[in-house]
Backbone:
């Protein structure tokens, strides 16, 4: 979920709150954080939740740079780079939904889906799918 989706105001604000509650009430986090969960299990769970940085091959670097340029558009270099990298990571893992209220990203939904199997979608649109 894009951080801009959490900005207050707009038609998606209530949807954002409901989606955040779904995440906060998630079964895994609830189970790990439960007071009766033994300390050794909590420690073990902490070691299983991580991200490993992988080196990219040339084709992947090209895809990432293409996404960065597409999403940046006429903006300054470096602008929107994190959004592009999130979308790159999503397509690396088979695609899916990128939840955002950013008009630029939403306007690219068609091409992102066609080329990378990534759909940019508003919080309320995503909530309707649940």
Residues:
């Amino acid at each position: 979920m894009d951080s801009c989706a959490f900005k207050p105001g707009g038609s998606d604000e209530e949807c954002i709150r409901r989606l955040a509650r779904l995440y906060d009430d998630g079964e895994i986090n609830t189970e790990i954080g439960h007071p009766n969960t033994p300390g050794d299990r909590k420690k073990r769970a902490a070691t299983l939740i991580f991200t490993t940085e992988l080196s990219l091959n040339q084709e992947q670097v090209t895809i990432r740079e293409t996404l960065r340029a597409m999403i940046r558009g006429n903006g300054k270099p470096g602008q929107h780079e994190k959004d592009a990298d999130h979308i790159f990571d999503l397509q690396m893992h088979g695609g899916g939904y990128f939840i955002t209220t950013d008009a630029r990203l939403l306007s690219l939904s068609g091409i992102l889906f066609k080329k990378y199997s990534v759909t940019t979608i508003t919080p309320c649109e995503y909530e309707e799918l649940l």
Remarks:
- The two ends are 15 Å apart (CA to CA).
